[in-house]
Q: What sequence folds into this?
């Protein structure tokens, strides 16, 4: 089976930097020099027992026989997060491409469906003027969906929804913005992002497979490096993409830190966006081409997106009634893993001593606080650490008895601190007891709340065996999502969102030990975490895009 050298895992150290073997040096920094790229190619090879083994090989690619193809680095994208990531990656990519150009490599700008913008550009005319190659593949102008061997494996991510990872509201706002500047919301690109330099004297511009093939044959190109977006779609499938170049005999490599995917973490395999890219890179290394990193061209470290770091979750537990010291860490291990983009710290207190050792220290660099506590009067430094955390605008996910987490009714140790207003102030709730345990509650969606992202994929109704908390009326700015109903008694809100200053808050009075066995409850907490944690869609900065 065809196999090749996986993109770095997040935060991993890079391979050694590339050494450029120079033949002829010139005094002008922008002049072409004779060079070879000394590359470390990474791949995956299948062994006799069917497992995959990491491979690393060293090769020298002559610069004058090498092309770098920049795939679909558009000025705008219909996905706001994708536009942000392109803008973030583009400056580094421009440095890499410039370095390859200086060494004598051919630079191919391939912003698909944007040729009208470049119709009179010298680089566009140069691509069109290349003589027709005699060995042009018959299907070189077609999209290539797979190559032999690749179809035998399950594609590693579900991209059937198009891969949009914007928050729904921000996606709507982004579409409205695109329309306001005269762009089509569904296909707003008109040109390549202008962060990337086009050399009118050396480069070519084309989105046609035959034109690019003609130029490569004219220039004697044997090696192709692909950069750009999106790896799981255009970089793989375009007529000038990895599959076509590989199956038609070029030496091909993906620059794995100069790419991105269209992948929504709400779809299979439910991992963080950047882990989705890692999985696609691994697929490519198995079946299509080896990969390299940009530091092999310009030195330093591989590029990493600023959001390609795990969300640091602190789970604080101090209750002696519902066994969340067992159920909550077990659930976290299952759904909030490093692979899914999380780094979890669990601090468990002694509910009788009113103390959660390690809490204050853990909160110093926490991104999300998950709280399951009951009637605690904590040491002053721990309560202050929670107040400071919330004052910084960071999110809180509260479970079950957290509605009365710091209402100890005067039973705490001397000099410990209560916070009885925590429920109405922070959670937006109004806990005042609960109904009896005689009947389970039926959990249903609040009218009009089914489109909220926290309820996406949550199977309703479901039943909860825990006593139903009396929570209403909620704070005016709370948004109820789920209601619990016991036959013969009134319904009560059991899940809602709230804001405390700049902090996003989600609370649910569910959390009885039996609830943790419910797939719907698991999905609810997963969605709540994805909704509240800071993601690129929450960044207020505007995307780096081309000038109007």
A:
């Amino acid at each position: 089976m065809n196999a090749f050298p996986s993109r770095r895992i997040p935060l991993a150290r890079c391979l050694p930097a590339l050494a450029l073997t120079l033949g002829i040096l010139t005094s002008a920094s922008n002049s072409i020099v004779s060079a070879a790229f000394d590359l470390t190619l990474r791949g995956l090879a299948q062994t006799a027992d069917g497992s995959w083994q990491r491979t690393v090989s060293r090769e020298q690619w002559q610069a004058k026989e090498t092309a770098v193809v920049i795939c679909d680095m558009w000025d705008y994208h219909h996905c706001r997060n994708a536009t942000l990531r392109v803008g973030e990656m583009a400056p580094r990519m421009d440095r890499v491409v410039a370095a390859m150009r200086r060494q004598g490599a051919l630079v191919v700008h391939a912003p698909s469906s944007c040729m009208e913008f470049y119709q009179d550009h010298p680089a566009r005319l140069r691509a069109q003027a290349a003589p027709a190659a005699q060995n042009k593949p018959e299907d070189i102008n077609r999209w290539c969906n797979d190559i032999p061997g690749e179809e035998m494996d399950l594609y590693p991510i579900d991209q059937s929804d198009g891969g949009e990872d914007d928050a729904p509201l921000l996606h709507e706002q982004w579409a409205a913005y695109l329309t306001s500047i005269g762009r089509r919301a569904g296909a707003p690109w008109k040109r390549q992002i202008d962060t990337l330099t086009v050399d009118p004297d050396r480069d070519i511009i084309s989105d046609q497979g035959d034109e690019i093939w003609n130029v490569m044959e004219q220039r004697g190109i044997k090696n192709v490096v692909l950069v750009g977006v999106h790896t799981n779609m255009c970089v793989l499938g375009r007529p000038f993409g990895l599959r076509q170049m590989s199956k038609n005999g070029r030496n091909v490599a993906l620059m794995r830190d100069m790419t991105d995917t269209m992948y929504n973490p709400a779809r299979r395999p439910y991992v963080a966006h950047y882990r989705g890219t890692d999985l696609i890179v691994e697929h490519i290394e198995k079946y299509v081409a080896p990969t390299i990193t940009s530091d092999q061209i310009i030195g330093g470290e591989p590029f990493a997106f600023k959001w390609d770091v795990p969300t640091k979750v602190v789970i604080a537990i101090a209750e002696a009634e519902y066994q969340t010291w067992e159920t909550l860490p077990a659930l976290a291990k299952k759904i909030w893993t490093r692979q899914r983009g999380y780094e979890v710290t669990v601090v468990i207190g002694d509910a009788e001593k009113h103390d959660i050792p390690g809490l204050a220290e853990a909160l110093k660099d926490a991104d999300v606080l998950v709280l399951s506590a009951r009637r605690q009067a904590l040491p002053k430094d721990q309560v202050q650490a929670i107040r400071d955390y919330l004052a910084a605008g960071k999110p809180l996910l509260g479970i079950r008895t957290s509605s009365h987490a710091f209402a100890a009714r005067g039973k705490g140790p001397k000099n410990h601190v209560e916070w009885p207003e925590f429920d109405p102030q922070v959670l937006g709730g109004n806990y005042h007891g609960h109904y009896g345990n005689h009947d389970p509650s039926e959990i249903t969606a609040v009218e009009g709340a089914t489109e909220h992202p926290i309820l996406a994929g949550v199977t309703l109704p479901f039943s909860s065996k825990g006593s139903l908390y009396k929570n209403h009326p909620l704070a005016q700015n709370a948004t109820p999502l789920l209601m619990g109903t016991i036959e013969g008694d009134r319904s009560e809100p059991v899940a809602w969102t709230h804001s405390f200053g700049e902090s996003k808050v989600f609370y649910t009075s569910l959390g009885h030990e039996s609830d943790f066995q419910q797939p719907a409850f698991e999905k609810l907490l997963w969605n709540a975490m994805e909704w509240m944690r800071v993601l690129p869609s929450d960044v207020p900065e505007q995307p780096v895009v081309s000038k109007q």
